[in-house]
Design goal:
The protein is mainly β. It has a single domain, classed as Distorted Sandwich (Glucose Permease (Domain IIA)), CATH 2.70.70. Helix content is about 10%, strand content about 35%. It has 3 helices and 14 strands. The strands form 3 sheets. It has an 8-stranded antiparallel beta sheet with strand order 9-5-6-7-11-3-2-13, with no helix packed on it. The chain has a 3-stranded antiparallel beta sheet with strand order 1-14-12, with no helix packed on it. Strands 4-10-8 form a 3-stranded antiparallel beta sheet. Strand 6 (about 80-85) and strand 7 form a beta hairpin. It is globular, with a radius of gyration of 15 Å. Residues about 1-5 have low confidence and may be disordered.
Amino acid sequence: MGLFDKLFGGKKPAKPEKVTVETEKGAVYAPVAGKVEPMASLPDPVFSSGAMGPCLGVWPSDGNVYAPVSGTVTAAMPHAFGLLGDDGVEVLIHVGVDTVEMKGDGFTVHVKKDDHVDAGEALLTFDRHKVAKAGHPDVVMTIITNADDLASVEAVGAGEVAVGAKLFQTA
């Protein structure tokens, strides 16, 4: 281990390969693999109340987070991403609860604001152990932030899901 590795925490994770997602109009897909958590039982009242819009969480099986839609990155922070889908849906991906307090420690961002991404393209890799050590739940929440502008938003994800499984259908 060199001096820079000691100072800056070692090598950053490489960007994971893109996951193939068969897309359909109006669908929003799981950004991580794991167990779906309904909105009402999420461990953060801002999200569980629906204040930001319809939301589902996924308790991740690993620390790779992928784009849930094809579109433009509107925000890229270590713990959260905004996306404007090519079909007009606005999606917020929020990794963990109160993880903003970690100031990016344990998070490697693979995209930047204004990038165009395809559904299934890696956005972030995060260290689940660092999140747990910091005392934060690592649930990854997917929020439809412009639901009022859409004709309908239906949460369809449940149980164990793979990256790219449908979480929402919008119209």
